[in-house]
Amino acid sequence: MGNSALKAHLETAQKTGVFQLTGKGLTEFPEDLQKLASNLRTIDLSNNKIELLPPLIGKFSFLKSLVLNNNKLTALPEELCKLKKLETLHLNGNHLRQLPSAFGQLSALKTLSLSGNQLRTVPTQLCGLRHLDVVDLSKNQIQNVPDTVGELQAIELNLNQNQISQISVQISHCPRLKVLRLEENCLELSMLPQSILSDSQISLLAVEGNLFEIKKLRELEGYDKYMERFTATKKKFA
């Protein structure tokens, strides 16, 4: 892509606060973007071939939305964690194995999508995020859900298409968790904490495609309590 095309995009972005350049075969984050560090609210560089997010990403202090789906990112810089206004972060279809240690400093984050990466566990850094609504960790390599998950503030947690065989009972203590998606994992019925049904806020539990028949779920203690919550909130999800 020529400089003139990039320049035109930069001029538009200066007016709109939105820089979108998708599917152009970019191999690196455009350094010229830092000229607009105080203008930009949204950056979308999806469907490119970007391997590294440079430390200068930390300069975009007004950024609300960063979308880098389907690139070749293997790691994220700690500087990303300086984005105090960031509300939406989409990193689906990359090669990420972990999150930066300071990720919990992204205090405004509401939506986090990490579907189709190489995470092996639910990142503990997510538990510090107080405004998190939706977390998508589907299509990773997660094998178990640790005790720290009990501190997660999310309303929806998507763990579909992982390799989960163990879930901490602490998941039923998540204060705001309403939707839990666990489809196509490796769960035995005995490994599903019954407290999810009997003693949690969860009103939509999706567990199709595991190592048990769905109808067996109905025999578990607490299923009636779960159905009460499901029925009560179904109207909202409709």
Textual characterization of the structure:
The protein has four helices and eleven strands; from the N terminus they run H-E-E-E-E-E-E-E-E-E-E-H-E-H-H. The protein folds into two domains: about 1-95, Ribonuclease Inhibitor (Leucine-rich repeat, LRR (right-handed beta-alpha superhelix)); about 120-235, Alpha-Beta Horseshoe (Leucine-rich repeat, LRR (right-handed beta-alpha superhelix)). The mean pLDDT is about 95. Helix 2 (about 195-200) links the parallel strand 10 and strand 11 (about 205). It is about 15% helix and about 15% strand. It is α/β, with parallel strands linked by helices and about 240 residues long. It has helices at about 5-15, 195-200, 215, 225-235, and strands at about 20, 40-45, 65, 90, 110-115, 135, 145, 155-160, 165, 180, 205. The longest helix is centred in the last third of the chain and has 15 residues, at about 225-235. Strands 1-2-3-4-5-6-8-10-11 form a nine-stranded parallel β-sheet. The chain has a two-stranded parallel sheet with strand order 7-9. The protein is elongated and about 65 Å long.
Produce the secondary structure layout.
Elements: H1 3-16, E1 18-20, E2 42-44, E3 65-67, E4 88-90, E5 111-113, E6 134-136, E7 144-145, E8 156-158, E9 166-167, E10 179-181, H2 195-198, E11 204-206, H3 214-217, H4 223-237
Parallel strand pairs: 1-2, 2-3, 3-4, 4-5, 5-6, 6-8, 7-9, 8-10, 10-11
